[in-house]
Design a protein that fits this description.
Layout lengths: L1 E5 L2 E6 L2 H8 L15 H4 L9 H11 L5 H5 L2 H16 L7 E2 L1 H17 L12 H18 L6 H6 L2 H32 L6 H6 L7 H8 L8 H32 L1 H15 L8 H6 L1 H13 L5 E5 L4 E3 L2 E3 L4 E5 H4 L19 H4 L20 H18 E5 L8 E3 L3 E3 L4 E6 L11 H13 L3
Helix pairs in contact: 5-6, 5-18, 6-12, 7-9, 9-11, 9-12, 12-15, 12-18, 13-15
């Protein structure tokens, strides 16, 4: 436990499972810490992510059905389509030369979340320079800077340096895009409602059921704007886009990174995927996803070492006792997940990548709050099932086609602990196509040396 003073405000940082349980499992301390206030201009004040306790209870109850497994199953085809596009992009890089895979993953997850959240395509994998996509990246950077750099936090300094004006322009791009989508989808929803909920003639003739985006479900729950206004819906959709692409991007990135550093474990993933798909190119089904037990354990273990969200903050509404210490009301408490996941008492040899830690017989021995990849307690991540399904489809799609080698040793990694845990310099890897003739284990040093020589000759 550590105390830090930020000006006149105390911040208590904790990294133990028992201490984390006291904070995260307490229904009286559900308000996010003040650092999250910098999201308000973009995501509003009543959305699920940053709302106060009273609003959060209502919104959580309203939105939970949208994340039911039956609803999530309909998005698997989106995951497959966009993952296949990712694979086709990566084929151009699968020549053994070093490249940064992180932007490819980012653009794929953006395409997935925009289609599942809004029902529209932003085509980030083919057009990563669009105004909307660039605005998402830039607004996140500004928010991250305000959360980290103390002198950027006061509004008058933020305005004086010109950042407030830039933020306003970015918000115009982001909010107008989402509002236009909400407006168009509401119009379509009302038309279909007047027709008795029937779909188009083509859909009825072909016997197809229209896939609903999260936005369509929110329109249904809104009861004509009496429960959720269009601006409420805009806030939640913007949240889905933000939280649904950034966290999954880094989770997939880190899983591929650690598998690329451990060829023997990667070979076990290959073996599992080969047993499921038997060398076919067919898309993954929900039954396939359920069978990816070892792949899921690899994703979880990667999230242990590199949690997508490295810290979780709470604002105390009343005094709280943590061990022998009393933390006063009004203080902020940060659960430092990155350190929590490295507690040797809970995770022996914590720096070792070992997916078998998440076998049921091993996981049952740990404190229930020792693993906090999706937060924990009442205010845990509502989209964790969505995220895990997406991550399994994307990781499996890549590894069904390629063998990956990560270039940077773990000891030399440079991490950015911002809103999510990013690789500062990207994730530089080599990809090799998997063929019937090539083994899934790592190639010999001569092959790598030959590839290095060829890539250097090409000016890579």
């Amino acid at each position: 436990m550590m105390r830090v003073w930020i000006g006149m405000s105390p911040l208590v940082i904790i990294s133990g499972a028992r201490q984390a349980e006291v904070v995260l499992n307490n229904t009286k301390h559900l308000d996010k810490s003040h650092q999250y206030d910098f999201f308000h201009p973009w995501l509003g004040t009543t959305g699920l992510f940053i709302s106060k306790t009273s609003d959060w209870h209502t919104r959580k109850k309203l939105l939970t059905p949208a994340f039911h497994l039956k609803v999530l199953e309909q998005f698997v085809d989106v995951f497959n389509i966009q993952s296949n596009k990712l694979v086709s992009k990566l084929k151009k890089e699968a020549d053994g030369c070093v490249f940064d895979i992180f932007p490819y993953i980012t653009n794929c997850t953006l395409d997935i979340i925009c289609e599942t959240a809004m029902g529209c395509s932003v085509n980030a994998q083919d057009n990563p320079e669009s105004d909307y996509i660039m605005a998402i990246h830039r607004i996140q950077h500004l928010i991250q800077q305000r959360m980290i750099v103390l002198w950027m936090q006061p509004d008058f300094i933020f305005r004086l340096l010109g950042y407030a004006r830039e933020q306003e322009e970015l918000l115009k791009t982001l909010h107008s895009f989402t509002r236009n989508i909400v407006k168009a989808r509401r119009k379509l929803y009302e038309q279909q409602k007047q027709q008795g909920g029937a779909g188009s003639d083509d859909e009825q003739h072909l016997g197809k059921k229209q896939r609903l985006a999260f936005l369509d479900l929110l329109l249904e729950y809104s009861e004509g704007g009496t429960v959720l206004t269009d601006e409420d819906i805009r806030e939640e959709v913007d949240l889905f886009v933000f939280a649904g692409h950034d966290t999954t991007t880094v989770a997939i990135n880190w899983c591929l990174y650690v598998l690329g550093r451990h060829p023997e474990i990667q070979a076990r993933v290959h073996a599992e995927l080969d047993s499921i798909f038997e060398g076919t190119d067919r898309p993954a089904t929900m039954d396939d996803i359920r069978q990816m037990k070892y792949t899921e354990n690899c994703i979880k273990e990667a999230l242990r070492l590199f949690p997508s969200v490295p810290y979780v903050g709470r604002q105390l509404s009343e005094d709280i006792n943590i061990g022998k210490y009393r933390i006063p009301a009004g203080a902020s408490v940060m659960v430092f997940t990155y350190a929590l996941h490295r507690d040797p008492e809970q995770f022996p040899d914590p720096e070792v990548f070992d997916p078998d830690r998440f076998l049921p017989e091993n996981a049952s021995k740990r404190h229930p709050f020792a693993y906090n990849a999706f937060s924990a307690g009442p205010r845990n991540c509502i989209g964790q099932k969505f995220g895990m399904i997406e991550e399994k489809v994307m990781v499996s799609s890549v590894l069904r086609k390629f063998r990956i080698e990560s270039i940077t040793p773990m000891k030399k990694l440079k991490l950015l602990s911002e809103i999510v845990l990013r690789p500062k310099d990207g994730n530089h890897v080599r990809l090799f196509p998997r063929t019937a003739e090539s083994p899934t284990s790592a190639r010999g040093s001569n092959s790598v040396q030959d590839n290095n020589t060829r890539c250097q000759g090409e000016g890579s």
